[in-house]
Amino acid sequence: MATYVISDIHGMYDKFIKMLEKIGLKDEDTLYVLGDVLDRGPSPITVLQKMMEMPNVIPIVGNHELMAAECMDFLCTEITEESIKNVSMEMINNFITWDYNGSATTIAEFMKLDSEMKKEVFEYIKDFSIYEEVEVVRTKAPHKNKGPKKGEKVTYLLVHAGLGNYSPNKEIDDYSLNEIIWDRADYENPYYPDRKNFYVINGHTPTQLIEENPKPGYIYRNNNHIAIDCGACFKGGKLAAICLETDKEYYV
Hints:
alpha/beta, five-stranded mixed β-sheet
């Protein structure tokens, strides 16, 4: 049994399938997906439907799923003159925000689904976790001889974006949804320095955009942060994964 984490697939179905093959995901393994499955890339709903077929996938909500969830209820209804007339200004603003953030491919695929499948997809998205905390036992020597040793227990907090307005005395349930899925992580701020073998894994911010990252486009580790969004949907970007038991990194 192994535990893997990926993030920010953004509709890159081919990269997702290649990653599943590369890590050799088995039925008894667990794969956590840290949000932003949707938007930007060509096949976001196809990726989502693949995930829906896999009971060993645990999805965590990203800001793109939140934007989609705020609009999909309307997309599931029959489009008539009456339904259009009743669209609120809030819903219009939600669609404008979602459009600005790359909704076109998601909407195009979603609207091709029959009504039953639209509802199934919508319900699946609404069931995404906000965060997950996972404890594993390290089975190999640490990454570059740094970090927990073989046989030690390691705890990972899995969130989409990070912990906005972070405080070491703040419980995870005290963070707002916005602080967890929209606010970008401050990688210069150590997360939970007093907790042994405790790390926060997040996506949201492509590692190409982390100024202090010596290897842009690869997984970035600093101050108990592990950033794994390697810009899969951008030119030259990668889909990244990490195995929690072995600390091994994978790239497509």
